[in-house]
C-alpha cells in the first residue's frame, strides 16, 4: 500500500473593515507563501510551498470544488478522510468550515448536501453523524458530546477516548435530509464553548470534531471535520492573568503544542506520543494512520509575524506526515435461501 502525505492548503482571509490597514507581511504566488519579518531594520523573508495558496478573493464554493469535494468523495470507496482547520484566533477557521449565510456556506454543509445527494443517486445507504468538543475544565481536557441535550443545572458528562482514538459511548444520529442536518448541527454548535476576546467577539474555546459515517451495501467510511481552537497570545487577546479566558488559552495552546510535537515526532521517525492530549488521541487516524488528510491553514492579514509564521511552519511540517489510506468493504447480506454446503 502506498503512503500518501497530508495535503495542505493555505487560505488568506480578507481584511475586515474593523481592522487597521497595516503593511502586509504575507504575499502569495501560486502555491508559495512568503512572509516578511519587518521587526528589524533589515527585513528578511521566508517562503513555504503547499498544495495550494488561496487569496482573499477565493469564494467558499471555489474552495469546496477545488480542494474539498474529491477528498470527501473518498468515503464512497470505503476510505476515511479528515479535514482540519488550523490558525490563530480570528483567522477564519469556523467561517471556512461552517460559513455564515445560505449564500456563503462553509465546507461542512456543502459536504453533507453532496453526500446525501450521492446517497440518493446510488439508491440508498445510511449516513450518521457524531459531534464532540474537547475543552478545558480547570486546565484539564474534557471530551463532551454536543449532540446530547442538557437542561440548565444538569451535570456535564465527559466521554473517554480509547487507544484507537475512538470516543466511547458517543451519540450517533442518522440524517435523511440537509434540513435534518442543519437543524441538528445548528443546535449542537450552539452548545459549543465560546467567549469574547480582544481578537474575536465569538472565539471558539474548544476543538470541535464532526464525524460523518457513510455506510453503503459495499463499503463503510468516515468523513471527519475538525475545527481547531485558535492559538493565541494572551496579551494580544486581552486575557487577564488568572481569568477563565487565560486558563482556556493555556489549555488550547498546550493541546496545539502536543499536536505539533506529534507531527515533529512522526517526521523524525520517532514513536509519537499521542497521549499528550485528547486532541491527538482523536486525530490518530490522520496523523500517520489510515485516513486521507487535508489541512487548511487559515491566516489573517492583520496577524503579527510570530503567530502567522507559526501557522505557516505548522503547515509545512504537517505536509511531510505520511498516511496509508485503506478501503473498508462491507459484506453484502446473504440471500434468504443462502446455505452452506460441504
Description:
By secondary structure, the chain is α/β, with parallel strands linked by helices. The strands form 4 sheets. Strands 2, 6, 7, 8, 9, 10, 13, 14 and 15 form a 9-stranded mixed β-sheet that branches. A 3-stranded antiparallel β-sheet has the order 3-4-5, with helices on one face. Helix 1 crosses helix 3. The two termini are 35 Å apart.
Low-confidence stretches: 195-203, 331-342
Form type: globular
How can the largest sheet be summarized?
9 strands, mixed
Order of helices and strands: EEEEEEHEHHEEEHEEEEHHHEHE
| Alpha-carbon Rg, integer | 21 Å
What's the count of strands? 16
Q: Cα distance, first to last residue?
A: 35 Å
Question: Helix and strand layout, with pairings?
Answer:
Elements: E1 4-5, E2 7-12, E3 26-29, E4 32-37, E5 44-49, E6 52-54, H1 60-73, E7 80-86, H2 93-97, H3 107-121, E8 126-137, E9 140-145, E10 173-174, H4 178-189, E11 194-195, E12 203-204, E13 206-215, E14 220-227, H5 234-237, H6 244-267, H7 278-282, E15 291-299, H8 305-318, E16 322-323
Amino acid at each position: 500500500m502506498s503512503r500518501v502525505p497530508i495535503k495542505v492548503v493555505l487560505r488568506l482571509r480578507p481584511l475586515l473593515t474593523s481592522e487597521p490597514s497595516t503593511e502586509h507581511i504575507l504575499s502569495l504566488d501560486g502555491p508559495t507563501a512568503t512572509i516578511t519579518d519587518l521587526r528589524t531594520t533589515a527585513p528578511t523573508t521566508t517562503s513555504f510551498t503547499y498544495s495550494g495558496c488561496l487569496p482573499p478573493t477565493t469564494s467558499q464554493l471555489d474552495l469546496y470544488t477545488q480542494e474539498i469535494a474529491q477528498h470527501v468523495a473518498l468515503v464512497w470507496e470505503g476510505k476515511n478522510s479528515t479535514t482540519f482547520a488550523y490558525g490563530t484566533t480570528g483567522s477564519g477557521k469556523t467561517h471556512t468550515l461552517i460559513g455564515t449565510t445560505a449564500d456563503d456556506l462553509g465546507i461542512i454543509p456543502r459536504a453533507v448536501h453532496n453526500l446525501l445527494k450521492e446517497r440518493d443517486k446510488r439508491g440508498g445507504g445510511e449516513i450518521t453523524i457524531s459531534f464532540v468538543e474537547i475543552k478545558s475544565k480547570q486546565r484539564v481536557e474534557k471530551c463532551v458530546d454536543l449532540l446530547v441535550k442538557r437542561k440548565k443545572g444538569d451535570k456535564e458528562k465527559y466521554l473517554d477516548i480509547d487507544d484507537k482514538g475512538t470516543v466511547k459511548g458517543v451519540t450517533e444520529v442518522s440524517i435523511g435530509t440537509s434540513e435534518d442536518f442543519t437543524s441538528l448541527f445548528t443546535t449542537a454548535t450552539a452548545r459549543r464553548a465560546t467567549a469574547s476576546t480582544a481578537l474575536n467577539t465569538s472565539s471558539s474555546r474548544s476543538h470541535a470534531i464532526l464525524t460523518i459515517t457513510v455506510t453503503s451495501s459495499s463499503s463503510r467510511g468516515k468523513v471527519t471535520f475538525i475545527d481547531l481552537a485558535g492559538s493565541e497570545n494572551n496579551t494580544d487577546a486581552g486575557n487577564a492573568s488568572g481569568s477563565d479566558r487565560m486558563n482556556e488559552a493555556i489549555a488550547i495552546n498546550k493541546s496545539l503544542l502536543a499536536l505539533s510535537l506529534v507531527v515533529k515526532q512522526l517526521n523524525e521517525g520517532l514513536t509519537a506520543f499521542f497521549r499528550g492530549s485528547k486532541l491527538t488521541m482523536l486525530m490518530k487516524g490522520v496523523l500517520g494512520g489510515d485516513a486521507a488528510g487535508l489541512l487548511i491553514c487559515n491566516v489573517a492579514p492583520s496577524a503579527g509575524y510570530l503567530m502567522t509564521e507559526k501557522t505557516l511552519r505548522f503547515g509545512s511540517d504537517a505536509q511531510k506526515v505520511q498516511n496509508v489510506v485503506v478501503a473498508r468493504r462491507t459484506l453484502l447480506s446473504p440471500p434468504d435461501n443462502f446455505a452452506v454446503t460441504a
